[in-house]
Amino acid sequence: MKTLLPSWVLTISAGLLAVAISGCGQDPSGQINGTSNLEAHKKVLHRGSGGEPGTLNPALAVDTFSFEILRDLFEGLTSEAADGTITPGVASSWIVSNSGKRYEFAIRPDAKWSDGEPVRARDFVRAWQEIVDPINASPVADILRPIQFAPEILEGSMPPQQLGVRALNDTTLIVELNQPTPYFPQLLSHSATFPTRGSQLVTKQGATALISNGPYSLSLWRPGGEIRLEKNKFYWGGTSVKIDTVVYSPIANEDSEFNLYRSGELDITASVPPTALPIINRDFPTELHIAPFLGVYYYALNLHSGPLRTSAKLRQALSMAIDRETLKSSLLPFGQAPAYGFVPPGTWNFGSQSWNWKEKPTEVRHQFARDLYAEAGYSQSHPLHLRLLFNTSPSIKRMAVAVAAMWKQCLGVETELIDHEYRVFLDSRKAVDQWDVLRLGWTADFNDATNFLDTLRKSSPNNDSGYQNPEFDSVMNLAAQTIDTAKRKSLLEYAERIAIGDYPVIPIYFYTSKRLISSRVRGATSNSLNRLYSKHLDISRESN
Fold first, then answer.
1. N or C: which end of the chain has fewer CB within 10 A?
2. Quick check: is 1 in a domain?
């Protein structure tokens, strides 16, 4: 039976917004023939977003395209400085108990929604209870797992009203945790923890609009065209916000995005095509920004059904057949590191684990892979057939083609490449009978190993592979209850060794951020979570 979600958790349709807001000739954004008659007097920032966001609803967003825009539209109890340091957000301050399990947040009296209504403590209570309610199947519910009784609520054994969060009054929020959680203030800057007004969609003067509480508000979402944000005049920190309008262009093709940047139509790109490096080094040498951050590019293997479900040897053979060093030299020119484990280097209080064959010569790995492949019942004359699903992107497709070629050359595997536009891909990935291998990436929501390893829990909505190992879940549960940081570190490292030994996923490489940022833009700083808030930026009106 299909579950009907409350109105506030309904995905905001790009098409609906475009129909409601767009019009002939002139639209409510003040555009005439694509150019605003006010832009000459405003600071306008043009950003590439890398693809169409799946939703602008904080309770449903799972993709980086949505997250980036949501951080401009909304604000949680905490926020972040440009360098990633945690700063006060809607909460002006907070007090932590000696046990580390009780937080008391003071809500700013001047924190307001984009329609001028005050943000109240109960707005957080409502939002969080809705997210952990299993009936709503929020894909980001795991973010709230540290809160008291959240695990039980997620499992359906307790009602969401029992969640350890309550409003003492309009400006005081109390949060009880299951155990001390050192990264909890950072977690509260994630979009899953943003407040809601009970109904995110309201009708005003015949147009559908999004009520948000961040530095910007939504004025236009034209599918395949642009997402336009205007400065929120009610935002409590508005005096520090320098840019009046932010225009996001969801461009999946990196080459197309680069061409728009070259022509001056974008100030910031979401990524950079490797093929453009010679031009960039010649024409924009100081505008290329590269930095490591906590993220992993990987393939999830289908353990729900199909040929990979029951054979760990076959899954290991596929991983060992991939020559990551060759991929690095040929397809990864931005300093990306080959991944032989799942949790990225540099993660707080954690030593990244890796397969014990990492240091073996390539030919030794490949021979072992061929032996495993044969033990699983496959050969050149009886090849394995796989379907590899990925979202539309030239660089992602180049990687898929290269990996499929390596599987073919080393093992004889026949791979069908299935390429879907991103919004379609978000649905296709859920249809586990349509793929055997799924291209995914995970970037840290907060700097802790659990943010990566929790995605492999049996109950995680992000466990696309369908991985199940009771020992892994038990060790993760024990780590969650461990206060001693050294013991917790040891448990989490053991959990990663368990998981990668089962081969539910094939990590390929660890991310670096790579953007082109115009010399007109001020305030852009790299950080370990690769977050670039528009509120931290400024832009000169002069052209390059």
1. N
2. no
Instruction: Kindly state whether residues 234 and 318 are assigned to the same domain.
Output: no
Residues 328 and 209 in one domain: no
**Nearest of 179, 183, 502 to residue 353 by alpha carbon:** 502
How far, in Å, CA of 392 to CA of 61, rounded? 19
Q: Are residues 153 and 237 in the same domain?
A: yes
Residues 250 and 330 in one domain: no
Q: Tell whether the model's pLDDT for residue 159 goes beyond 70.
A: yes
Interatomic CA distance for residues 30 and 50, integer angstroms: 25
The reply to whether 101 and 220 lie within a common domain is: yes
Residues 500 and 527 in one domain: no
The least confident of 59-63, 369-373, 404-408 is 59-63
Task: State the angle between helix axes of 394-410 and 254-262 in degrees (0 to 180), rounded to the nearest 10.
Answer: 140
In this structure, the answer to whether residues 524 and 503 fall within a common structural domain is no
What would the pLDDT profile of 273-332 be if each residue is shown by its tens digit?
999 999 999 999 999 999 999 999 999 999 999 999 999 999 999 999 999 999 999 999
147-158 pLDDT, tens digit per residue, is 999 999 999 999
Residues 233 and 217: their CA atoms lie apart, in Å, by 9
Q: What is the pLDDT of residue 403?
A: 98
Residue 483 near residue 476, CB atoms below 8 Å: no
Output the CA–CA distances (angstroms, integers) from residue 316 to 129, 186, 286, in the order listed.
41, 35, 42
Q: Provide mean pLDDT across the span 388-412.
A: 96
DSSP state of 179: S
List the structure tokens of 18: 């475009």
Residue 376 belongs to domain with CATH number: 3.10.105.10
Residue 35 has pLDDT above 80, yes or no: no
Q: Which domain holds residue 383?
A: 293-513
Cα 463 to Cα 173: distance, rounded to the nearest angstrom: 32
Asked if residues 488 and 464 have their Cβ atoms less than 8 Å apart, the reply is no
| 279 in a structural domain | no
Q: Which of 247, 284, 280 is nearest to 36 (CA)?
A: 247
- What's the per-residue H, E or C state across 366-401? HHHHHHHHHHCCCCCCCCCEEEEEEECCHHHHHHHH
CB neighbour list of residue 427: distance below 8 Å, 6 or more residues apart? none
Confirm whether pTM is higher than 0.70: yes
Does a structural domain hold residue 172? yes
Please check whether residues 464 and 526 belong to one and the same domain.
no
Cα–Cα distance measured from residue 78 to residue 187, given in angstroms and rounded to the nearest whole number? 8
Sequence-distant (6+) residues with CB within 8 A of 64 are 50, 441, 443
Give the total number of structural domains in the chain: 2
pLDDT of 206: 30
d(CA 66, CA 53): 4
In a domain, 465, yes or no: yes
Residue 26 pLDDT class (50, 70, 90 cuts): very low
- The type of residue at 232 is N
Q: Is pLDDT above 90 for 97? A: yes
For residue 25, pLDDT beyond 70: no
